[in-house]
Amino acid sequence: MVSSYTLSSSTSTIVCVLIFCGVVAIYCNKPECKPATDVCNVSPSLKREIANYSTIVKEIIRISTEQEGKFKGKVWNDLAFFVDKFGNRIAGTKNLENAIDYMLDLLHSYNLDNVHGENVSTPHWVRGNESCVLVSPRVQNLAITGLGYSVGTNGTHLEADVLVVQSFTELQNRADEAKGKIVVIAEDWLGSYGKTVVYRSRAAVEVARVGGLAALIRSVTPFSIYSPHTGMMSYSGNVTKIPAAALTVEDAQMLLRMSKRGDPLRISLYMEAQTLANTTSRNTVAELQGTTHPEKVVVVSGHLDSWDVG
User: Fold this and answer.
1) Kind and range of the H or E element at 245?
2) Which label site among 4, 15, 171, 307 has the fewest CB atoms less than 10 Å from its CB?
3) pTM (two decimals)
């Protein structure tokens, strides 16, 4: 969804745009952000241009997040109001459409230019009920959250022996052991979200390629309070679609420890997830025309939607 989250006036919209630019500028100057990566693949000249605004951006951030003054608590209160009022906002739901209506009205009230919604066809994924149980060597419920756009288990409880690995490389090296099993990928946190998230996006495909029945990954986060994290995953056209879900960090580490001790693991997985026919939603658009170079356009995009467990 393309939108500008505003504070109190059209000037405040500039705050959010420049904050975004500042974050990009700061991140793009980090050593791990190189043009070869898909995280920040921009030219050196563009990075320098963005970085030139860092002083202004930092001052705007300071003012807009200050503990005293005009904006005291406003960003937090506006965000809290939004999420409290609309709750989760996954594509295909009334919650999202109500949130879009609210944002369009808000942007109009700030007198921004060309405020409108643009219809867009979006997938309509429904989670349904889901559960995961360790059935051997002892019984324990495992908290999971299905990954976005995963298939389900076809109305049955999928029970199988388990292979635990820590990387795609290990999975390939142990491919003969994966066939007919539920594969748990207990990957380490690799120091950044961008590096680690490949296990979420590619797990189902990589496990299916070696004959696995389902993929369970460690949630993509360095810390946990027994909270599984969802997010986008993908399939490949020529590879069987298998269910994919995230475990908590705690349970992934427990299964890894048990596996290393030689305990025979067996899991029962149940997921009702399905993708229904596409639905029509809207992109939320607003413009703030500049004065020095009104013919130039800077696009700032973000999400109004959220996952269903948000």
Assistant:
1) strand 244-247
2) 307
3) 0.81
At residue 63, the 3 state secondary structure works out as helix
The residues with which 121 forms a beta bridge, in sequence order, are 280
Average pLDDT over residues 31-58: 72
- Give the torsion sign (CA, 73, 79, 85, 87): negative
Whole-number average pLDDT of the chain: 88
How many CB atoms are closer than 10 A to CB 153?
Answer: 21
Lowest mean pLDDT segment, chosen from 56-65, 159-168, 175-184, 217-226: 56-65
Determine the average pLDDT of the residues in 97-122. Answer: 97
Residue 16, both tokens = 């959010």
7's CB contacts (< 8 A; 6+ apart) are 13, 15, 16, 64, 71, 74, 75, 78
Q: Are residues 88 and 157 in the same domain?
A: no
Instruction: Tell whether 112 and 133 lie within a shared domain.
Output: no
Give strand pairing partners of 126. Answer: 274
The Cα 268–Cα 171 span in angstroms is 21
Q: Could you give the CA distance from residue 169 to residue 158 in angstroms, rounded to a whole number?
A: 26
| Same domain membership, residue 175 and residue 264 | yes
C-alpha dist (Å) from residue 250 to 67, 94, 255, 257? 36, 35, 9, 11
Q: What is the pLDDT of residue 73?
A: 85
Residue 43 sits in the same domain as residue 81 = yes
pLDDT of residue 24: 40
Q: Are residues 218 and 142 in the same domain?
A: yes
DSSP assignments along 105-134, one per residue: HHHHHTT-EEEEEEEEEEEEEE---EEEEE
Q: What is the CATH number of the domain that holds 174?
A: 3.50.30.30
- Beta-carbon contacts of 173 under 8 Å, excluding residues fewer than 6 positions away, are none
Of 80, 107, 123, the last residue of a domain is: 123
